[in-house]
Amino acid sequence: MTSPLHLVRPAADTSRSAPARLPSTAPDPSDSESGGAGPDETPDPDGGALDGHRSPDGGSANGSSASGAARRTAPPTAGTTPTAPTAAATAPSTSTPPTTAAPNGSTGVSGRRQESSDGLRGRLAGAWDALAGIRHRARYLRLLAWPLYFFALWRYIADNGLPYQNDVVFCWLIGALIAATVQSGHRFGWLRVLRDWLPVMFAVYVYSLLRGYGAHTPWPVRWRPQLEIDKVLGFGQVWTVRLQHWLYTPGHPHWYDYLCTTVYMSHFFAIFIVLAALWKRRHDRFTRLLAFYLALTFAGFATYILYPADPPWLTAQNGHLPDLTRVVSDVLTQSGMPRAGSIFENGSQFDNDVAAMPSLHAAYPMLLALFFWPTAGRKLRVLLAAYPLAMAFTLVYGAEHFVIDVLMGWLYAAAVYYGLGRVLDRRAAKRAAARAERDRERQQALGATPEPAGATAMTA
User: Fold this and answer.
1) In terms of Cα–Cα distance, which of 347, 25, 355 is closest to 207?
2) More confidently predicted of 364 and 200
3) Mean pLDDT over residues 438-454, rounded?
4) Distances (CA, A) of 260 to 256, 397, 398, 400, 449
């Protein structure tokens, strides 16, 4: 008699997706002879057994995946048709298969290229990081710029003496500017220093060269007109003779003699230090003062050629005045302070002892006073007024210039400042007008012509 459990299995419902079953290859001894369910198992409509409850994936409710994987299909009885495999069993897997190389190897080549590109990027990134580390450590070396500069200057003064010629001063000034740009972190700032200052140095060198040649002119050297004018201004006595009689003790310099020497030597540094400060902070003011300086310098040179004149000390040597002492030279000699010769001027080859009218020693302080006076405060104006007066006293007391030489230097400075200043202002106004015109034409070409002033208010 056929067991009631050996019923024909109904056809699987293809509307639902059942997990694929693995066919059994050997009968399980624990199963009954008829292939039914075990005594502790509940018949599964799909042929499996549930241990308590059915899990959604066809396994047992205790979460074991092995029961679902080991579920078997009962062998069909005689006269029955084997059940067709379900759609879930034959459906392909939805997981993405691993990428395989194409038959021609294109995927492998592109992968190798990608790996090579990534390696190159990594090496470049490593090199850049190494370079950045070196630059980060090397930035502290720029802090040595000023110490090295001052050490070199100290050694130069110890070996050669105090520099006072224009070319030597310019060399050290350019070195100071380069040190300042290096310490500030500008990698190519030294090129800007050379661009702006080498032409200035060349112009000053040309002046020094021509000034030396100006000592040999076909015109006679003048001394009497200055002497007569100074006697008038000194009420019958030349002011140089009177001041040295009152104040100077030959061979025993006083404190004011050292002060006068300091004021006199500032002539070789002051104008250049001011130019350097303006170059660093106000380049437009730097170019303007530089134009004044060069114009005043070459105007003085032209006068030296046309009107060679003796200073008081040389007039005294020629017997036209009582004995006079060059106070600055005497103080420097007795102080033991050596003076540096010129690198390019070959010592005193280009000195000009008859370049006294006008006095550029007096002209430069007056130029600085006129240049900074409009924008200076009260304290700075006191200094601007005191510097030309102190220089004038030093020049007359030290027998370097007559009073008329000093006055002519002030007059030259005023003429250059106001005359050339007006020319520069006109040129600046023309450039501003031309720039405004170009901007207006550009706006018209772009179709964005601005409305005249007040048009908005009128329409409102």
Assistant:
1) 355
2) 364
3) 71
4) 6, 9, 8, 12, 63
Q: CB–CB of 408/230 below 8 Å?
A: no
Nearest in space to 350 (alpha carbons), one of 226, 163, 158, 204: 204
Q: Name the pLDDT band for 233 (thresholds 50, 70, 90).
A: very high
Q: Indicate whether 451 pLDDT > 80.
A: no
Q: Token match 């001063």: residue?
A: 169
181, 190 contact by CB (below 8 A): yes
304-to-222, 297, 307, 308, 367 alpha-carbon distances in Å:
11, 11, 5, 5, 19
d(CA 357, CA 325): 20
Q: Compute the mean pLDDT over every residue in the chain, rounded to the nearest whole number.
A: 75
Q: Which two tokens stand for residue 5?
A: 């459990």
Q: How far is CA 394 from CA 37, 262, 300, in A?
A: 131, 10, 20
Selected residue with higher pLDDT from 214 and 302: 302
Integer CA distances (angstroms), 385 to 80, 365, 366, in order: 130, 9, 8
The tokens describing 47, both together, are 């042929």
Contacts with 386 (C-beta within 8 Å, 6 or more apart), sequence order: none
Per residue in 281-322, pLDDT (tens digit) is 899 899 999 999 999 999 998 999 889 999 999 999 999 999
Burial of 444 (0-12, 13-18, 19+ CB in 10 A): exposed
Q: What is the pTM of this model?
A: 0.65
C-alpha 27, offset from chain centre: 90
